[in-house]
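Deliverable D5.2: sample structural annotation.
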Amino acid sequence: MIRFDDQGSGPPIVLLPGLAATSRVFDGTVRDLSRDHRVITLELPGHGDRTDPADDTPATVSGAAGALHTLLDRLGVTEATLLGWSLGATVAYAYLERFGRKHVRALVSVDQSPRLVLDRDWPHAAFGALDEDGARDLARGVTADFAAFTANLVGGSFAAGTEPAAEAHGLLVSEALRCDPVAVRSLLADVTGQDWRERLPLVTSSLPTLFVHGARSRVYPTALGRWLGDTLPSARLEVFDSSGHLPFLEEPERFLRTVRAFTAHDKEPTP
């Protein structure tokens, strides 16, 4: 079974990390939210030094969603908010499509696109220009030179025009290198082949949903937030003006206020 942490008490919130990242990227988020929430974090398949070598969860989005369902069943969690960052958000979408609202009361999707590759009517691809050939090359690069892949991925995750704090940058790189390159490649190949543009409105129908996007994201540099706001008008959109792909690290205080306000459903988040 995929390893997890379970801290705090109160309304449950489940944190799902992104590709080539471990739950340690959420350390500061967990410390703060666990003061008044039950915070559960888990690793993606093949990710992190806490991953059980005996775990045979497929390194796919569906495999991760199934592992999440098994975990929530085991823990007896109900009425959880799923908070997925990047690929972790796609895992949350897949969970909702496969299992419905069982265990879930709300969704927070952090800087993720419903489709990661370009097509004729879709400009909101990863890095603004990832096409199908580029996606295949990117996946091959994971196992060809994992250190270079992770360095580029981490370096491009911070806001455009900024110099990342050495501590945050170092943590992301060191945790990325704890992941299994084969699992990372498998997950990347899987997610770049998926298209949630029509499916996302269906899985979030009547579900309280918050989209968080970084205005200076180099991973999703186009007007993706605007598309989400137009396509899912009942959802809430919060754009973080000083953030890239990592608003929970780049604007942590606002991120925590926003998540708390959303989970409480009692006031609007403040800038």
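Annotation notes: The chain has one domain: 4-264. The CA atoms of residues 124 and 246 lie 18 Å apart.
The annotation will be released with the project's public dataset once the embargo ends.
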